[in-house]
Design brief:
The protein has 3 helices and no strands. It is mainly alpha-helical. It starts with a helix and ends in an 8-residue tail after the last helix.
Length: 64
């Protein structure tokens, strides 16, 4: 059961789904990245969002 919880945690979602999505979006929009691989930017942003959601316990900014 812990493995199931780990696989569907916000951190995994942020790193495994949001990071490639953000990297492809950056590439598709042609945004400048200052020579940094867009995937690394996606990992940073997706990891930060996943970590904040993990610590807060919610993806929403305001918890009910």
């Amino acid at each position: 059961m812990k493995l199931f919880g780990l696989l569907f945690s916000p951190m995994v979602f942020g790193l495994a789904f949001l990071a490639p999505l953000l990297a492809q979006s950056i590439t598709a929009l042609g945004l400048p990245t200052a020579g940094i691989n867009p995937l690394w930017i996606g990992f940073i942003v997706g990891g930060a969002l996943g970590l904040s959601a993990q610590l807060r316990g919610s993806w929403f900014w305001i918890k009910p």
